[in-house]
């Protein structure tokens, strides 16, 4: 791999009240790749994302982003550094419209403060709002959710909510996108659409993407590399072809599924 | 044993969610309900279990009969008492209760003596040995797979005569999906318990089911045995993800977003 | 600090704490079974005291309708409390299912206003100082204690009785919740209503039951308190002392309610042992100051359950 | 809901799409309301003018509460206590420094805002009922402090001090009629501010915290910072409201209210009007204050029917009436009058096709 290292996880361990969620996990995420993290439920995949976004603080080890140490940086700062994410169980702002959800994610890019907010017309708030609105509309049209622009997200069907959540992550204009099971609960058709969006984001913006997903067909198709976790330990790392046939991975995770994949 | 006759469900007096759905579950059968999100699968289950009432939904036409009794006017607790239990989507459990307490909540409606309930508990631990080792653990801290086993176990604790499972595979690793479906099959074979299954993963659902229905926008568009459905071109393409020649197609090859085909109806 | 007062104040504080604990228990009970924080508990308590007073013929001016001894009057008040509890659940809280937290908080506050109005309409706004009691207010135990004022600690019998009642009630509740089927059903229901329904629990019946029990606890507390102070509209404000106690102990813990209640009783009593008048005056807000400190250090209270949060 | 617009009405710029006042009839309605209120001395008696003053400062207090509770989702039971801070601050500034109203009122608001920050600190750790209790602590501690500290300045056990008439250059606001213009200008300013907050970054961050605080934090919203901003703004508004009330009543102190019941009433107004909506504080404030009057009149009427119980009836009528109104609203109109208003508007626009 000649691409530069973007995010680097070194010897990270994490435990909750005695149970080890992560044990001495290390891997690198390279600039512009799609890296999938797979593994059984409870293997620590989401915990790993939570460490990367500062929601959990690892007991040991370090996480660096473009060479900067972010292990102890608070979550709201990490978002500002350029790491965006979606959530396993959709975590939208249910009372806001699609538009406002995505606008709310532009938060870190706004410059004006509390007093300008109150004054609106003077102090530049209005101008900035319009500028960001334009950017948000681009995201909305890319994800083909124009028709629900002003609909309250709480009432949208699951598949669309997942898409709005992706839009919200895009609005951060991050350099790394962490997707936590973005296709869960979707049928094939919806998965295909979502996969297309993810691939397009990857290609057009050269976005580095970290993906947690259980649909092995999908992971094998779109990931460049795969990291496998089991009981908080990294048991394998490699290309989809290597992982598919890794006996350890088959034992702990894939089971008979590897027959279908080949 | 369960017959749904042409039911119509309306939410909040205005939103029509089900428009004429008829489904049958026979003795000892596993019946799968497939379909896109928003097609009305979960609503169908909730219509059966009576949980619709709490969400301002109503069965406005048609009837639901279970063992020759019309049940669509009953409250959820009366329906559970008749032997129908619904295992909700998303591994919903009483997070702050322990594993064993969660299982026991399943048996709260029964009037059996403790000895019998304890024997059933052992039976659950027989199907899901891992739960026995975790019995004192606060259930909120279990992993996804363990939680799914727990909620199925809790459903069984009510000694149901029909169990409804809503998306048991959602968010689970492939191995676990296989494991859980193996157990579902085993429970069905050993006890003859009929199961109505809502599932997004069409391949595995068709693998265990004896009969399947496909739903789209609030109605049943197709039904048949898994073997019959597997022959259907649309099922192959939209539910099983196969190319024309019968191979798994790659997600990288799907280029066009809008190629939706709908069944007539 | 006025040291010679301290032993007496500690004893009084603990006993007072018992009553606060009993009041807290009722609030914790409703919270544990339905996740509703009942701001109207104090008003239920006041209602219970007034009903008892009315049936026991507390007026003593010959105008009373009934003239029952305390125990039958108490039993009738308990029956009234059960009915009121059921009515509240059925007509005020059941329609609120699924509404946000704030709306439910306000519903209990609206109830509080309503009960206050009804009580003052029926019983009048004048406090009724004469309340039937098995002990006269001056009936006391004297416990020898060297170093205390006069070498004795004085314990009012009514206070000792209420302390005993509070302890008994809390032990009973803890056992009931942890070891009975109904207790388990209540704990389950409080976590997730829809899920509870799906396992076949009759959720409305469980709510009704917990409101009925809460009404009974409130009535017991109201009577014990009224024996000390007489029946008045002010009885409802004692919950304002119970609230910090509840949160100190942890909203969902019976043990916490007891410990919190006693802590608040002690803090108030000890503050009053001070020789500085302004410190003595702070007795009414001292529990809240302690509460603020505890909340910052340990947000879930001393014995409260830590919420499981996942994202 | 938001998409209910008549066909043919579409926007051609983002600015237009983001505007709050969309149609000429909006302007007509707003100007008419202002005109009616401002000309009250001409068409109404002193009682009407005083009531409008009362409505003005009440709505301001509820607007503040709406930002904290409605938008940010942090339940507060202490808004009345913060009004007390604002009232005292403005009164003391005017009494001891002779500060004119244009100076004493904003300064009082800022001071109250800072006090609000202190009581907002527990929001870092606690949520829901626990936070409600922390604000309840404010509701007890602040009035206690005004009675028991700096007794020479704050009135001590009297529980009140007198407040000078506000001045603005040569103008002395010495009557309810003159004061009316002060309250209306203040209300206009706070309304514009509240509207602006709700449609900008700040408002979205607040709602993000309300709807999903963990996600908000992971998407770059500094939770503590924004919760504190919400507490600050809520107290700021309470400060303005308190200062206005103090100057219009010419005295301030715990004897005059500012207690838990008033804080609860503010929450009630918010619910009745519509939580988290811009119109809510207006609809709720006006409705409750007018209902209060109706309750009083009706209570006197009922008391006259039963002379033997007149004192009981008079004291009990208000709590019964309010308790009932609040409960009925929560059951039958849980989303508040603002929601009903949008439904009516929608029906009007879709006419004649609406049901």
Element pattern of chain A in H and E: EEEHEEHEHHHHEHEHEEHHH
The CATH topology of the largest domain in chain A turns out to be Rossmann fold
Measured distance between first and last alpha carbons of chain A: 25 Å
- Percent of residues in beta strands of chain C: under 5%
Can you tell me the number of structural domains of chain C?
A: 1
Give the distance, in angstroms, between the N- and C-terminal Cα atoms of chain C: 50 Å
**Whole-number count of domains of chain A:** 2
* Greatest interface (CB-CB under 8 A), with counts per chain: C-D, 49 and 47 residues
CATH superfamily annotation of the largest domain in chain A: P-loop containing nucleotide triphosphate hydrolases
Q: Specify Rg of chain C, calculated over alpha carbons.
A: 20 Å
Largest sheet of chain C: 2 strands, antiparallel
Tell me what you see in this structure.
- Chain A has 11 helices and 10 strands.
- By secondary structure, chain A is an alpha/beta fold.
- Chain A folds into 2 domains: 1-82 and 174-262, Rossmann fold (3-Layer(aba) Sandwich); 92-173, no CATH class.
- In chain A, the strands form 2 sheets. Chain A has a 6-stranded mixed beta sheet, sandwiched between helices.
- Chain A is globular and about 65 Å long.
- Chain B is 35% helix and 24% strand.
- Chain B is globular and about 55 Å long.
- The mean pLDDT of chain B is 87.
- By secondary structure, chain C is mainly alpha-helical.
- Chain C has a single domain, classed as ABC transporter involved in vitamin B12 uptake, BtuC (Orthogonal Bundle), CATH 1.10.3470.
- Helices cover 66% and strands 3% of the residues of chain C.
- In chain C, strands 1-2 form a two-stranded antiparallel ribbon.
- In chain C, a hairpin with a 7-residue loop joins β1 (140-144) and β2.
- In chain C, 54% of the residues are buried.
- The model of chain C has no long low-confidence stretch (mean pLDDT 86).
- Chain D is an all-alpha fold.
- Chain D has a domain at 38-164 and 172-281.
- Helices cover 73% and strands 2% of the residues of chain D.
- Chain D is built from 15 helices and 4 strands.
- Chain D is globular and about 60 Å long.
Could you give the topology of this structure?
The complex is a heterotetramer of chains A (262), B (265), C (311) and D (355).
Chain A: E1 5-16, E2 19-30, E3 34-38, H1 45-52, E4 60-65, E5 68-69, H2 75-81, E6 83-85, H3 98-105, H4 114-119, H5 125-142, H6 158-171, E7 176-180, H7 188-205, E8 208-212, H8 216-222, E9 225-230, E10 233-238, H9 240-244, H10 247-254, H11 257-261
Parallel strand pairs in A: 3-8, 3-9, 6-7, 7-8
Antiparallel strand pairs in A: 1-2, 1-4, 4-5, 9-10
Chain C: H1 6-34, H2 41-55, H3 70-93, H4 101-123, E1 140-144, E2 152-156, H5 157-179, H6 181-191, H7 193-198, H8 203-229, H9 239-249, H10 254-271, H11 277-281, H12 286-297
Antiparallel strand pairs in C: 1-2
Chain D: H1 14-18, H2 24-38, H3 40-43, H4 46-71, H5 79-97, H6 101-120, H7 128-148, H8 151-154, E1 161-162, E2 167-168, E3 171-172, H9 176-198, H10 201-218, H11 223-249, E4 251-252, H12 260-273, H13 280-305, H14 310-332, H15 336-350
Antiparallel strand pairs in D: 1-4, 2-3
């Amino acid at each position: 791999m000649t691409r530069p290292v973007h995010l680097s996880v070194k010897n990270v361990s994490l435990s909750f009240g005695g149970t080890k969620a992560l044990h001495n996990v290390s891997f690198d995420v390279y600039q512009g790749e799609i890296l999938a993290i797979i593994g059984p439920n409870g293997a620590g995949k989401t915990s790993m994302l939570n460490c990367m976004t500062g929601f959990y603080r690892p007991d040991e080890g370090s996480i660096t982003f473009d060479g900067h140490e972010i292990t102890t940086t608070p979550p709201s700062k990490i978002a500002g550094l350029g790491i965006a994410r979606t959530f396993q169980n959709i975590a939208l702002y249910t009372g806001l419209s699609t538009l406002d959800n995505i606008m709310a994610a532009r938060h870190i890019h706004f410059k004006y403060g509390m007093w300008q907010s109150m004054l609106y017309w003077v102090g530049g708030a209005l101008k900035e709002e319009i500028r960001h609105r334009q950017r948000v509309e681009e995201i909305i049209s890319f994800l083909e959710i124009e028709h629900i622009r002003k609909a309250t997200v709480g009432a949208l069907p699951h598949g669309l909510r997942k898409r709005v959540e992706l839009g919200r992550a895009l609005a951060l204009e991050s350099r790394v996108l962490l997707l936590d099971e973005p296709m869960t609960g979707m049928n094939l058709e919806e998965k295909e659409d979502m996969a297309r969006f993810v691939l397009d984001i990857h290609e057009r913006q050269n976005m580095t993407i970290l993906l947690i997903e259980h649909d092995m067909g999908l992971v094998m198709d779109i990931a460049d590399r795969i990291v496998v976790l089991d009981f908080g330990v990294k048991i394998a790392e490699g290309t989809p072809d290597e992982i598919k046939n890794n006996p350890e991975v088959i034992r702990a995770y894939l089971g008979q599924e590897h027959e279908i994949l080949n | 044993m369960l017959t749904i006759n042409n039911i119509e469900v309306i939410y909040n007096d205005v939103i029509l969610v089900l428009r004429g759905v008829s489904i049958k579950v026979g003795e000892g059968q596993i019946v799968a309900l497939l379909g896109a999100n928003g097609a009305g699968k979960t609503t169908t289950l909730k219509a059966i279990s009576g949980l619709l009432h709490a969400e301002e939904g109503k069965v406005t036409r048609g009837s639901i009969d279970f063992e020759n009794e019309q049940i669509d006017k009953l409250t959820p607790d009366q329906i559970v008492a008749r032997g129908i239990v619904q295992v909700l989507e998303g591994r919903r459990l009483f997070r702050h209760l322990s594993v064993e307490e969660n299982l026991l909540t399943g048996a709260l409606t029964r009037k059996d003596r403790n000895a019998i309930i304890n024997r059933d508990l052992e039976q659950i631990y027989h199907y899901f040995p891992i739960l026995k080792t975790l019995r004192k653990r606060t259930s909120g801290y279990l992993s996804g797979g363990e939680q799914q086993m727990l909620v199925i176990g809790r459903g069984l604790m009510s000694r149901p005569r029909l169990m409804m499972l809503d998306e048991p595979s959602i968010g689970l690793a492939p191995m676990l999906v296989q494991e859980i479906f193996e157990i579902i099959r085993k429970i069905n074979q050993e006890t003859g318990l009929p199961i109505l299954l809502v599932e997004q993963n069409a391949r595995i659902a068709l693998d265990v089911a004896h009969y399947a229905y496909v739903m789209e926008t609030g109605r049943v568009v197709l039904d048949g045995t898994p073997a019959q459905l597997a022959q259907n071109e649309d099922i192959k393409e939209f539910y099983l993800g196969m190319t024309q020649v019968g191979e798994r197609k790659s997600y990288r090859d799907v280029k066009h977003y809008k190629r939706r085909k709908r069944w007539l109806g | 600090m006025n040291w010679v007062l301290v032993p007496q104040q500690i004893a009084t504080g603990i006993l007072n704490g018992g009553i606060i604990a009993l009041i807290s228990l009722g609030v914790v009970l409703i919270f544990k079974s339905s996740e509703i924080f009942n701001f109207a508990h104090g008003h239920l308590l006041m209602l219970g005291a007034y009903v008892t007073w009315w049936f026991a013929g507390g007026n003593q001016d010959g105008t009373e309708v009934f003239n029952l001894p305390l125990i039958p009057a108490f039993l009738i008040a308990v029956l009234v409390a059960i009915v009121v509890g059921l009515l509240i659940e059925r007509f005020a809280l059941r329609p609120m299912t699924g509404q946000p937290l704030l709306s439910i908080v306000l519903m209990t506050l609206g109830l509080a206003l309503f009960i206050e109005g009804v009580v003052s309409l029926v019983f009048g706004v004048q406090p009724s100082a004469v309340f039937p009691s098995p002990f006269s207010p001056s009936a006391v135990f004297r416990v020898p204690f060297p170093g205390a004022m006069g070498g004795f600690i004085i314990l009012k019998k009514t206070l000792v009785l209420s302390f005993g009642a509070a302890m008994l009630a809390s032990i009973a509740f803890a056992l009931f919740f942890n070891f009975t089927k109904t207790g388990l059903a209540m704990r389950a229901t409080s976590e997730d209503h829809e899920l509870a329904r799906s396992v076949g629990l009759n959720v409305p019946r469980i709510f009704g039951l917990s409101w009925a029990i809460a009404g009974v606890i409130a009535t017991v507390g109201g009577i014990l308190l009224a024996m000390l102070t007489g029946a008045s509209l002010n009885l409802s404000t004692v919950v304002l002392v119970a609230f910090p106690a509840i949160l100190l102990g942890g909203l969902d813990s019976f043990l916490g309610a007891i410990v919190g209640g006693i802590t608040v009783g002690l803090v108030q009593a000890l503050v009053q042992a001070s020789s500085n008048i302004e410190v003595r005056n702070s007795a009414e807000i001292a529990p809240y100051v302690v509460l603020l400190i505890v909340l910052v250090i340990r947000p879930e209270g001393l014995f409260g359950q830590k919420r499981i949060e996942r994202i | 809901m938001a998409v209910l617009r008549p066909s043919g009405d579409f926007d051609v710029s983002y600015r237009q799409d983001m505007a709050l006042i969309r149609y000429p009839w909006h302007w007509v309605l707003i100007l008419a309301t202002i005109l009616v209120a401002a000309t009250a001395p001409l068409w109404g008696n002193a009682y009407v003018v005083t009531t409008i003053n009362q409505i003005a400062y009440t709505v301001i207090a509820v607007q503040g509460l709406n930002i904290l509770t409605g938008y940010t989702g942090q339940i507060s039971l202490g808004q009345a206590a913060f009004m007390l801070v604002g009232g005292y601050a403005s009164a003391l500034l005017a009494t001891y420094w002779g500060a004119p109203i244009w100076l004493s009122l904003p300064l009082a608001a800022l001071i109250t805002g800072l006090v609000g920050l202190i009581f907002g600190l527990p929001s870092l750790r606690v949520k829901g009922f626990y936070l409600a209790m922390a604000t309840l602590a404010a509701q007890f501690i602040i009035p206690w402090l005004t009675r028991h500290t700096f007794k020479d300045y704050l009135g001590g056990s009297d529980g009140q001090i007198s407040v000078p008439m506000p001045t603005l250059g040569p103008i002395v606001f010495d009557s309810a009629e003159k004061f009316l213009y002060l309250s209306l200008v203040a209300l206009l300013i706070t309304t514009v501010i509240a509207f602006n907050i709700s449609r900008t970054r700040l408002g979205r961050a607040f709602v993000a915290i309300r709807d999903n605080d963990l996600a908000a934090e992971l998407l770059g919203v500094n939770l503590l910072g924004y919760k504190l901003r919400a507490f600050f703004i809520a107290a700021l508004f309470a400060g303005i409201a308190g200062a206005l009330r103090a100057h219009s009543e010419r005295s301030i102190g715990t004897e005059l209210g500012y207690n838990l019941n008033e804080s609860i009433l503010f929450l009630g107004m918010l619910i009745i009007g519509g939580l988290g909506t811009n119109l809510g504080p207006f609809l709720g404030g006006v409705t409750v204050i007018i209902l209060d009057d109706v309750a009083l009149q009706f209570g006197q009427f009922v008391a006259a029917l039963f002379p033997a119980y007149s004192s009981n009836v008079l004291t009990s009528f208000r709590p019964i009436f309010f308790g009932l109104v609040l409960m009925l609203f929560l059951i039958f109109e849980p989303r508040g009058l603002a929601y009903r208003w949008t439904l009516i508007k929608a029906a009007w626009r879709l006419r004649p096709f609406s049901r």
